[in-house]
Amino acid sequence: MTIERTLSIIKPDATRRNLIGKIVARFEEKNLRVIAQKKMQLTLQQVQEFYYVHRERAFYNDLCQFMISGTVVAMVLEGENAVLKNRDIMGATNPANADAGTIRADFAESIEANSVHGSDSLENAAQEIAYFFSGLEIVG
Ligand code: CMP
User: Fold this and answer.
1) How far is CA 45 from the centre of its chain?
2) Which residue CA neighbors atom 10 of ligand 1 most closely?
3) What is the pTM of this model?
4) Is 50:66 a contact under the CB 8 Å cutoff?
5) Residue 92 · residue 110 · CB < 8 Å
6) How many Å lie between the centroid of ligand 1 and the Cα of residue 49?
7) 93 lines ligand 1 (CB under 6 A)
8) Can you spell out the DSSP letters for the chain?
């Protein structure tokens, strides 16, 4: 087992519905530790940069507008196999396909307003963590 770090974002649909604590509890119950956390109102430019990989997708503009429609909570999660574990806890991107008991099955409103983002690989996790946090803000 390897100790990994991954980036998690609680999205505006979830912060609007006061679900921050319930979502963080899902990670802590599965032994992921929050080693950095901040609540933010992102700018359009910041979101466009973060989701740059999706810039050609039909949903890109709507996704960016959604992500600036309210506050988000960015977190670094640490634990054994954190990247895959976080994705298991989140469930499938589309809540209609998410397994019972996952965050998206229980809380997401739609494929866009799907409550959480999580890094999809260890390499992307390192990049995404560095996008949101400086080394001094991460307290492992
Ligand atoms: P996330 O894991 O944050 O990565 C990209 C996001 O785009 C995704 O979650 C969804 O919220 C959003 N999205 C909207 N429409 C789609 C779609 N058709 N396919 C994949 N992602 C989508």
Assistant:
1) 18
2) 112
3) 0.97
4) no
5) no
6) 15
7) yes
8) --EEEEEEEE-HHHHHTT-HHHHHHHHHHTT-EEEEEEEE---HHHHHHHTGGGTTSTTHHHHHHHHTSS-EEEEEEEEETHHHHHHHHH--SSGGGSPTTSHHHHH--SSSS-SEEE-SSHHHHHHHHHHH--GGG---
Helix crossing, 122-132 with 82-90: angle to 10°? 80
Query: Which residues make Cβ contacts (< 8 Å) with residue 18, sequence separation at least 6?
Result: none
Q: What's the 102 CA to ligand 1 centre distance in angstroms?
A: 16
- The CB of 59 under 6 Å from ligand 1? The reply is yes
Q: Give pLDDT tens digits for 78-128.
A: 999 999 999 999 999 999 999 999 999 999 999 999 999 999 999 999 999
Q: What is the token pair recorded at 132?
A: 């949101």
Atom of ligand 1 nearest to the CA of 114: 11
